[in-house]
Amino acid sequence: MRTFRTIKVDCLARVEGEGALRIRLRGDQVQDVRLEIFEPPRLFEAFLRGRHFSEAADITARICGICPIAYQMSAVHALERALGVTIDPAVRALRRLFYCGEWIESHALHVFLLHAPDFLGYQDALEMARDHRALVEQALRIKKTGNRLVALMGGREIHPVSAAVGGFYRVPAKRELATLVEDLKWARDAALSAARRVAGFEFPDFEQDYECVALSHPDEYPFNEGRLVSSRGLDIDPAEFEDHFVERQVPYSNALHAQLRQRASYLVGPVARFNLNFSKLPEVARQAAEDCGLRAPCRNPFRSIVVRAIEIVFACEEALRLIAAYEPPAKPRVEVSPRAGSGAAITEAPRGILYHRYEVDERGLIRAAKIVPPTSQNQKTIEEDLRRLAPQLLALSEEEMTWRCEQAVRNYDPCISCATHFLKLNLEREQA
Amino acid sequence: MIIGIGTHTGGDDQAGLLVAHRLRELSVEAVDYSGELLRLIDLWEGADKVILVDAMRSGGPPGTIRVIEWPGVPFAGDQLPVSTHGLGLFEVLSLAAELERLPQRVTIYGIEGKEFEPGSSPSPEVLASVEELAQRLAREVSGCTNPA
Question: Which residues from chain B sit within 8 angstroms of residue A9, using beta carbons?
């Protein structure tokens, strides 16, 4: 007997694509777990060929409607390496600020509107809003703070694209940033109380010994810079990413699974960052983590919701710090002369490390691009979680089991991308 | 306020974006939006009326234009997102209504698409309907038959 469940993952009009979560059981044995996620970043690699390097940030920002800043950041940093460009320290600070906005936005959306309903026993945010209106209103307000920051930095309300190779097209004035301070303080305090609330949820007793992979910087909780490290001893310059990570075409999926050459699956994202960079969090966030009973290393993926809440606290605090210290750079961006070259960079998108590499020719046109998003890197890990989780759920009804599996996938907030896409859950039970 | 919704890479899923773009060419104010949809709640804040344009898949002939006045929408309830990208338009409208953050009047125009394959171009039927709908909305707005 088969159970099918259609999970809609996007807007009004969608085609039934390749996406599926397939769990095959025989009796009480899990035979197979397959997560298929369509990968539009591959498409964009093709779009980028022949385009001028100055267009890359704008083009790649369209890969993800929730994390366009992440794509802009990885793109400009990679191209700056390819073209031998050094940015002004004030620009560096602004880029961190830009990223703070996106983290706040993305995490608030995920924690409260996607994941909290699971823990509170609601079908979705709408149902939850009927009983917890204040919580939802608060979440939207936190999210809006992030939106405002991004919009202000990005120069346009709807499609902020300000990141340029060499700097920004436009930098904000001190007084503009000052208008955000009250909101950010409110958001930080709201995030603190929300973190405590979320920490009180009931978490399934489930742990995995992940190899966590994240950026690491001597002084900062990472955004745009650092070495790439893991909890099992990896420590490399981002430029060496492809020497250590390989992508394998998976026969049942459109996507490529990224794997560590030596050790296969790994974890990227908030939990990985938290585990590897806990000591770099500002005091208020570290204290909040402790108050929430979070300790590094966190091995329970369901607690990622708490980690995200802590990262919202961090992002608000960091934004306030950057705004207070901000002095506009002498020039928004430096002149960039085209030259043939190749460069790679990794930045920490809300969901984890995002790798970009570009080859440009002497005219500055892109000859090749490679984009490895965080979700494809977590794909194998998600499957492994489910493979280990499914046997624990066998006593549940089909509906309950399906929902728990979906909840486990939601730990990762996979970027299925704003490409048209349905995700179907197929639960196949074979006779033993 | 007119908002065209869609994605840039999904073939006919560009329909809403193209309508907004065309409206601007016709000197009518319209916004094209391709990000996550909860932001719409902030975008339409303060507007008494909003028109949303999006591509649609309802089984009809490609290019069909359908008008839906909220809340009369055929919302299929058994659909749960596994990611933030799963918060679709109907979910957002329902949530906004629950929070009393929906304009008084919400009209949704859907253009039936047939080609959503990523990287594909919009189909001729959809392009024709984009033009037709843009002209129609431009007339509506300039004729002031629907005061904002």
Answer: 81-83, 85-86
